[in-house]
Amino acid sequence: NLNIDDIQGDVLIGMKKNKELFYFFSIANARVFKRKLATDILLLITTTTQLLSVSTQPLTAHTIAFSQTGLKTLGVTDDLGDPAYAGGQFADLGNLGDPGSTNWVPEFKGTNIHGVLLFASDTEHNIHAAVAHLDAVLGNCVTKVYTLDGAARPGKEAGHEHFGFLDGISNPAVKGYESPVPGQAVVEPGTLLLGETGDTVKRPAWAKNGSFLVFRQLKQLVPEFNKFLTDNPIVKPGVLTPQQGSDLLGARMMGRWKSGAPVDLAPLFDDPALGADPTRNNNFTFVHPDVALATDQTRCPFSAHIRKTRPRADLGTPEEAVHHIMRAGTPYGPEVSDHEAATHTTSTERGLAFVAYQSNISNGFHFLQKAWADNANFVHAGTGVDPIIGALAGAQRVVSGLDPTDPTKTLTLTTDFIVSRGGEYFFAPSLSAISGTLAV
Ligand code: N7H
C-alpha cells in the first residue's frame, strides 16, 4: 500500500489547476533554508491525499523538488543512483537532440539552480499571494533565479496544448493504487517512485517515495506548425477537402486528433465523442485483425508522437513496462495573435512547461526522447523521427508513414516546431524525507 500522505501530490495525480507558476531558486543560506524547510515549507507541500478531494485541496497547491547541486548545498551527499540526475540536464543536452545551448534560457545553463517550487491554483491572484507569502518567509536565504508562468488555455481550448490537441489523456495507472481505464498502461509503483516495488536501483532509504521531476521549457512554433499543415495536406480526391487533408496530417503526426480521438480508431476523420470518452480514447494497441502490425500504417504512422512515446503492442509487454512517465506539464505563453497567424511567424514565445515524473530518468524521459523520439529507426528501420518532439541537433528531420495513401513517401519537416529552451532534472522528495533528512 502506498503511503499517499507522504508522497507529493503532483507526482501521482497532478495538481491540475488553471494556473501554475514555476519558481526556480538557488539556496543562499543553507542553514536558514533548512530551518524554514522544517517549520514553514513542509506545511505548504501538498500531499497526494490532500489533492484527492476538493474539500481538502488547498487554495494554492505546492510542490518542491531539488537539483543535484541543491541537495549538495543542503549537505545531502548520498548518491540517489541516477546518473542523469547527478550530472544535471545541461550536461545531458547533447543526448536529447538539442542543437547546443543557444536556445536555452540562460538561467538553465550550468548547475546554478538548486530547486524549484511549483505553485498551482485557480487564479493568478492566489498564486501571487502564495509567492508573496513564501518570499516573506524565506527572506534572503534563497535567491529567485527564474520563473515561468503556466496557464491553461482559455475557453474551449482549456485542456488543449498550444497546437490545439487535447493533452493529459494518457498517463499510466499505478498498480494496486488505482484501477486502469481500458487501454491505460499499468505500471509498478517503482516505475514512478524510488524504493517502491519495481524500482531495481539501490537508493538511500530516505529517498523512498520520492520521484525525479524532469522539467523542460519547450517552445512551440504554432503559426509555423499550422502553415506546414496547410502546405502539405494529405490528398484523397473526392474524400478530403484541403482543410481536412491538413487536419489529417496533423492528427497523424500526433497519433490523435485535436479532440483526443486516436487515429488508430478514427483513421480518416475526427470523432469528438470518441476523443471525449475516457473509456474508449485509450482503448487501442495498434493491432487490427485485417492488417499486419509490423507493416501497416494506414491507421497510425509508426512515427506518430503517441506511438513513438508509447509503442503499445509494437514492443510487447515486458519491454514496454518500464518506459513510462507521469506527465504533469502545463501550457505557457499567450494565444496566437492575428498578426502571428497572418505572417505564419511566432513573435511571442509560447509552449509547454513540460513536467514528467519517473523513478529513473534513463528509463523514463531520457529514454523516450533519445532512444525513441529522436531515433529515426524506431519502431522500425526508416520510420523517421517523432515529427512533434523528435530532434536531431538542428539537422533536417525526415519522417515516413505520414501519408496513408503511400506510407513509403517521406516528408521533410521545414523546421523544428518544438524548440527546447532547456530545463533541469530535479528530485521531488517525500514529506518524511524533507523533515527527516533534507531539513536536518
Ligand atoms: Fe507528448 N502535443 O500536444 O503535441 N503529447 N508532447 N511528450 N506525450 C501527448 O495522450 C506534446 C513530450 C508523451 O500513452 C499527447 O495525453 C507537446 C515529451 C507521452 O499513448 C499530446 C509536447 C515527451 C504521451 C502531446 C510534448 C512526451 C504523450 C496526446 C512539447 C517525452 C502519452 C495526449 C511541447 C520525452 C502516449 C495524451 C500514450 C502524449 C503533445 C512533449 C511524451 C497531444 C506539445 C518531451 C509518453
Describe the structure using short key phrases.
440 residues; alpha+beta; 5-stranded antiparallel beta sheet; 4-stranded antiparallel beta sheet; 16 helices; 13 strands; binds delta-meso nitroheme
Task: Briefly characterize the structure.
The chain has 440 residues and is an alpha+beta fold.
Provide a descriptive summary of the structure in words.
The protein is of the alpha+beta class. 27% of the residues lie in helices and 18% in strands. The protein has 16 helices and 13 strands. The strands form 4 sheets. Strands 7, 8, 9, 10 and 13 form a 5-stranded antiparallel β-sheet that branches. It has a 4-stranded antiparallel β-sheet with strand order 2-3-1-4. Helix 2 runs antiparallel to helix 16. It is globular, with a radius of gyration of 21 Å. It starts with 8 loop residues before the first helix and ends with a helix. The model has no long low-confidence stretch (mean pLDDT 97). Bound molecules: delta-meso nitroheme.
According to DSSP, the number of beta strands is 13
Q: Which spans of ≥5 residues are poorly predicted at pLDDT below 50?
A: none
Shape: globular
What percentage of residues falls in helices of 4 or more residues? 25-40%
**SSE series:** HEHHEHHHEHEEEHEHHHHHEEHEHEEEH
| Overall radius of gyration | 21 Å
Largest sheet: 5 strands, antiparallel
Can you count the helices?
16
Which compounds are bound in this model? Answer: delta-meso nitroheme
The mean pLDDT is 97
Strand content: 15-25%
- Class inferred from helices and paired strands: alpha+beta
Distance between the termini: 28 Å
